[in-house]
């Protein structure tokens, strides 16, 4: 009689009488298909999550262990599935923007920008200069806060508490800026097709300038704390490594791809929002392990800070410039005109009642989000609601490489590897 | 920006009628290929010098509002070296089973992407080693949510959905097989053990 550890589809160890997950695997007797307790088996099934602080959300991992070595890792996702893509098919284009906030909720502004860019590409709209600069600021602020969350939580996972406090302090300053700009800290809904929901308030630039001046000091402190720290290096170097070929084959993107030595950044290679006119570097790793991912993300924050400084300089030259395109098909006319001018009133009515109508066609628009390449694939049939609104979720695709990275490593490394992917379950499950 | 990608004439020369048509939308090239040759076309695009679409950006599907129109499986390809993109589509007639060859053997990144298309649209990817639902739970019985004939609130009525939720055994978070892994297998009711032995799957009602 042969026994094998039960297959992946079955791999929940169940619960014992007290309600705790059991850790005794059963074998499947291949001769008669009966299950029975396999106490002699060398392998053990361990269930992590979905309610576990180190899984960064409602991710469930089922691990098959031999001693402390992970033989197989089976992720289960979908606990936070909200059907955003389906909901989007029942909404006008501008009504979808609040849904994008809630996918990758650690960088809502960057999602808003990506969505607006996709619709604008379909409608062939040319944005105003000030709008582009403000959107770049929104994207780079998002990159910084998202990487700060990653840094803090990964530090905690590996036993370092102080950088968590530093990074959340810095993050708070950006959230205050977001709140002053959009009125919301998390669900910003910043963009509208053809422009922005609002211009920045008076004196806002001074706040961001103060941030960009003082933020590098925190980064230096983190660098001092981690980069040459023996514990940090021991936990991260050579762990969860992926080669460049593997990274490409797994369709990884963002810091995960670049840490493996692939020099690909959407901002450089398919520029949008005039990113090609900004002076910044794209950090690229060498070994593709957790340490390189950390180095890449840390350097990206420095570079984002540089971009923010340049964008602020441009903004000072664009004072009072319009933020919205002057196309009455997509941007509401001012209320005063709508109430006095017949044509403006018609446009106002049509936009509010019918929504924006992109021409028949489709577009794939990829933007470099903090987690990786966020893509919006839109299909329009000429009506005001999309036929298909597909999110290419970077953390979903990056997470798919988790089993390969974990298998063969130690159980304690699984936590570190999972943290290094930088997932946000709102986006993985959508 | 409305010139098609040079990959399309190259594809036509190599595969002839298997490249059904091509068009340009928003400056992006789309090539429709036949279902039978889709895997060959994608493998050729990946490995041929001069094409080198080595990066599978995305796999998804589109169900159009016109119920007569085919469901389309969409592959977004990219060549990282050449910085070029190409969208390959495979149209699947809805009157026959929705099946297409998996590209798991070309790109491991297709693993979860194809599972998601299966989960949301019910397209079977032949050759995928582990094709099961990914976002919905495995015993989800209401169908394929992103199909256009799937109502926004699901096929079951609210009352039925509520009834199922309330009728669920507290242990129903675990499927039968999952429970069978538990220590308590021997303590399961007789009928449940029998259902397990018959290989029955699903949640307890």
Short description:
The complex is a heterodimer of chains A (430) and B (205). By secondary structure, chain A is of the alpha+beta class.
Tally the beta strands of chain B.
7
Tell me the β content of chain A: 5-15%
Oligomeric nature of the chains: heterodimer
- Radius of gyration of chain B equals 22 Å
Instruction: Identify the biggest protein-protein contact and residues per side.
Output: A-B, 64 and 56 residues
CATH class of the domain at 7-142 in chain B: Alpha Beta
End-to-end Cα distance of chain B: 58 Å
Q: What is the H/E order of chain A?
A: EEEEEEHHHHHEEHHHHHHHHEEEHHHH
Q: Could you name the key traits of this structure?
A:
heterodimer, A: 430 residues, alpha+beta, Cytochrome-c3 Hydrogenase, chain B, 2 domains, three-stranded antiparallel β-sheet, 11 strands, 46% helix, globular, B: 205 residues, alpha/beta, Beta Polymerase, domain 2, five-stranded mixed β-sheet, two-stranded parallel sheet, 6 helices, 7 strands, 22% strand
Describe the structure.
The complex is a heterodimer of chains A (430) and B (205). With 430 residues, chain A is an alpha+beta fold. Chain A has helices at residues 84-88, 93-101, 108-123, 129-157, 162-182, 204-226, 230-236, 244-249, 255-259, 266-269, 290-317, 335-338, 342-354, 394-399, 402-406, 411-421, 425-429; strands spanning 3-5, 26-29, 35-37, 43-48, 60-66, 69-76, 191-192, 195-196, 361-369, 372-380, 388-392. Chain A folds into 2 domains: 3-76, no CATH class; 84-392, Cytochrome-c3 Hydrogenase, chain B, CATH 1.10.645. A 3-stranded antiparallel β-sheet of chain A has the order 1-2-3, with no helix packed on it. A 3-stranded antiparallel β-sheet of chain A has the order 4-5-6. In chain A, strand 2 (26-29) and strand 3 (35-37) form a beta hairpin. The two termini of chain A are 44 Å apart. Chain B has 205 residues and is α/β, with parallel strands linked by helices. Chain B contains 6 helices and 7 strands; from the N terminus they run αββαββββαβααα. Chain B has helices at residues 7-15, 38-47, 110-121, 158-167, 176-180, 190-197, and strands spanning 19-25, 28-33, 55-62, 71-79, 84-92, 99-101, 124-126. In chain B, a hairpin with a 4-residue loop joins strand 4 and strand 5. The N and C termini of chain B lie far apart (58 Å). Classes of the chains: A alpha+beta (430), B alpha/beta (205).
